Amino acid sequence: MNTKLVLLSNRQQFILLAALSLFSEQSLAKIIIERKITTFTIENINALDMSLKRFGVSLEDDVLESLDSYTKSNGFANRSQAIRFLIEKNVTEEKWLCDHLVAGTIIIMYDLTRKDITAKIEQNQENYQDVILSSSQYYLNKQFCLHIATVMGAAHRLTELSDKLTSIKGIKHGKLVMSRAD
Predict the structure, then answer these.
(1) pLDDT tens for residues 27-50?
(2) Whole-angstrom Cα distance, residue 147 to residue 136?
(3) Which residues pair with 110 in a beta bridge?
(4) What residues contact residue 15 under an 8 Å CB cut-off, 6+ apart?
(5) What is the CATH number of domain 59-95?
(6) Which CATH architecture has domain 99-180?
(7) CA-to-CA distance for 93 and 88, rounded, in angstroms?
């Protein structure tokens, strides 16, 4: 059996990890880093420990409609991804409602045809220059841009900035990833 190997440059790995984090696949990104996987084969992808648990959820019609609307408007592939994202977001928000010194990244993907988004990102970032270490854009194709801001400061301040950036109308996906730095 022929197995095709795909080698990724450091830049491609970084973009892959950033993009994966948008879709709540932190566990996959963590495994790729820990195992230093730079080639992808059927064997090593199947070997990744990605155990998912299934469970049933009962929802009222209006709540289910809201979930479906949220899933579609945020570009999630299915309800499971949307629910996973909301749970992780809630856990993170509760965990970081403090003043610990943290470092991390804010990753957002947006549609380049919306010219006002770039200006709104810059406007919001101006008020948080004390916590922004760097900011970069990666043009994924003619339609989408991946914006990554590296940040460090009080957890509540980073959460504030992330909330402002990810709530800009037209942002397709956004996520704050941070770790304690003190």
Answers:
(1) 455 555 555 555 544 444 444 445
(2) 6
(3) 145, 171
(4) 138, 140, 146
(5) 1.10.1220
(6) 2-Layer Sandwich (3.30)
(7) 8
